[in-house]
Amino acid sequence: MPVIQLPVIESTSTPPLEGRKPSWLKVRAPGGPNYMRLKGLLRDWNLHTVCEEARCPNIGECWEDATATFMILGDVCTRRCGYCAIAHGKPTWEDREEPERIGRAVAALGLDYVVITSVNRDDLADGGAAHWAATITAVRRQAPACRVEALIPDFQGQPASLQTVIDAGPRVLNHNTETVPRLYKLARHGGRYARTLELFRRARSWAPDLVTKSGLILGLGETRPELLATMRDLRDVDVNILTLGQYLRPSANHLPVARYYHPDEFAELAAEGRQRGFAHVEAGPLVRSSYHAKRQTEAVRTAP
């Protein structure tokens, strides 16, 4: 099977030689039988995945394992984050039948764990929360044994929207912090660091037993002390699971990579996270928020 070399942008600290790319950023090209089957089924069902829209490097591995992260509420985001490959603009998409199609797809695939995410829909009064709840409910009804991880937007900080999603009964509530507070204005247009922390604070207050999760992408210009302080903030609002992955520039129109982290550095940061009390830390150059999501949740259940 051929190997895809992911695009590597020069580091501002130690630029690589022309044409030389870190060996740990190589992945197998997708194309196995399960990958092709799932790709066809998703087209037949007219469903979106963040795996494709965000150009995830793990798509071949995950789809071959019949694992995908469904993306609801269309494929156009109302925000323009500097690191994200998903299209942005004014959404016109509305599909009231999507929740039932996702429920049927999860049942047909025989999944016992599914991750659902969405674009930001700041154009909707509730940020899409009702659609979120309908989707979670449809999966729980059509595949009762399947656990749902909801990777949600911040709903512009609306408590009622968050409550709507929590009331639908996801097994895991995931919201990505993405970067350190200093870089929010640069990287997370429309996002607020304090709003992210408040989301987790409210979730823990309303649903004490809910597993919570967040992720950071590294290489946007953060410092190690800033990373450790952000980890501390997430533990202060009792986030259970943390993911850490390398930022890879989707195009020349996106933020440049400020630094590439060696796999050993990811291992060190994972150890730092565990020392700070996270039940599980998934860290590595190609780690993304939903990578090995089922395994991450099981690690929380078995944690002391």
Structural description of this entry:
- The protein has 304 residues and is of the alpha/beta class.
- It has one domain: TIM Barrel (Alpha-Beta Barrel), CATH 3.20.20.
- It contains eleven helices and ten strands.
- The strands form two sheets. An eight-stranded mixed β-sheet has the order 3-4-5-6-7-8-9-10, with helices on both faces.
- Strand 5, helix 5 (129-142) and strand 6 form a beta-alpha-beta unit.
- Helix 4 (98-109) runs parallel beside helix 5, helix 5 runs parallel beside helix 6 (159-167) and helix 6 packs across helix 8 (193-206).
- It starts with a strand and ends with a helix.
Brief descriptors of the model:
single chain; 304 residues; alpha/beta; TIM Barrel; 8-stranded mixed sheet; two-stranded antiparallel sheet; 11 helices; 10 strands; globular
Gross morphology is globular
Classified by CATH, the class is Alpha Beta
β-strand number: 10
- How large a portion of the residues is in β-strands, by DSSP E? 5-15%
The DSSP helix count reads 11
Q: Cα distance, first to last residue?
A: 41 Å
CATH superfamily: Aldolase class I
What is the radius of gyration? 18 Å
**Strand line-up in the sheet with most strands:** 3-4-5-6-7-8-9-10
Give the rounded overall mean pLDDT. Answer: 83
| SSE succession | EEHEHHEHEHEHEHHEHEHEH
Q: How would you describe the oligomerization state of the chains in this entry? A: single chain
Helix content: 25-40%
The structural class is alpha/beta
